[in-house]
Design brief:
The radius of gyration is 21 Å and the shape is globular. The two termini are 37 Å apart. It is of the alpha+beta class and 297 residues long. The chain has eight helices and eleven strands.
Length: 297
């Protein structure tokens, strides 16, 4: 995009070749048309890499908002493998395949061999989402002049075509959910209470280091060892013990605990999804899609 950026392989062992692309100028993160241009340029320049950005608002932004940067690497995430549950074409962009991804979060996938058409359409969707409200499903573009809507974008090349996943984000809070309406809710915060950022959006759980010891303690509790379980895990540990009586094998207990953590993380993603996987939620999702303008079948 005619501008100098830095590249570093990061010290985080999330996945193979995890890397960060850094703006050479110190400026705040911003999701814009430029974001889509740069992300698609990155995946063109680095074959086999994905590239994505965290959102640019608090609560739904998973990392530093004060310096513009992207993340990338050589990894296939669960979200990339997820199929479309609904397909359509947008008016004026007939050569772009589009659809809603079957995923707990609210994802519009765009695929085309034309970078320019993808950028134009993605920018249209971003601008529409920033000002779109649907109070019937607790979707609000802004309150008291404070914006709530942005997008977590992910770019990749697949089968010779460019692909953009646009994840709709909403950072509202409420008395019931002061940490965020579309944020891990209280009952799952014993596993994950931090913001849901780019990597987690795509299905790879970045969990707090405290769990390394705490999950082993829960597993020990399941096999009847005299061990202290963290207060915030106690109810969960009791439920696991009740549903798995007579456990004596520590390795088996740890497998049960880890499987439960995976299910809880899936719930975390559901909490972060703006449009829920219900008939009401998906109907509302399509109302937004139709607002942008789709071709009738």
């Amino acid at each position: 995009d005619g501008h100098e950026w830095g590249f570093q392989y990061s010290p985080y062992a999330y996945f193979n070749e995890h890397c960060i692309f850094l703006d050479s100028k110190h400026r705040p993160m911003a999701i814009s048309r430029h974001s889509f241009e740069r992300l698609l340029s990155i995946v063109e320049q680095f074959p086999g890499y994905f590239a994505g950005s965290n959102a640019d608002l608090p609560i739904v932004g998973g990392s530093i908002l004060t310096h513009d940067h992207y993340q990338g690497g050589r990894h296939v995430f669960p979200m990339e493998l997820a199929p479309l549950q609904q397909s359509f074409r947008f008016q004026g962009f007939e050569n772009v395949k589009a659809g809603i991804v079957k995923w707990p979060m609210s994802v519009i996938r765009l695929t085309s061999d034309s970078k320019e058409n993808l950028i134009d359409l993605a920018d249209n969707i971003l601008q529409e989402w920033r000002q779109y409200s649907d109070p019937s499903v607790q979707v609000l573009a802004e309150s008291n002049g404070i914006p709530h809507h942005t997008i977590t974008p992910i770019a990749r090349k697949r089968d010779g075509q460019f692909e953009l996943d646009l994840v709709l984000r909403d950072n509202q809070t409420s008395p019931e959910h002061p940490d965020g309406i579309y944020h891990p809710h209280k009952d799952v915060q014993h596993i994950k209470k931090e913001n849901i950022g780019l990597i987690e959006v795509m299905g790879l759980a970045i969990l707090p280091p405290r769990l390394k010891v705490e999950l082993e303690q829960v597993a020990a509790y399941l096999v009847g060892e005299d061990v202290l379980v963290a207060d915030y895990h106690q109810e969960w540990a009791d439920e696991l013990k009740e549903s798995n009586p007579g456990l004596t094998d520590k390795d088996q207990a740890l497998e049960i605990v880890q499987e439960s953590v995976g299910k809880i993380f899936a719930r975390v993603l559901e909490d972060a999804g703006v449009y829920k996987q219900t008939e009401e939620g998906q109907t509302a999702f399509m109302r937004f899609v139709e607002q942008i303008g789709i071709l009738s079948e």
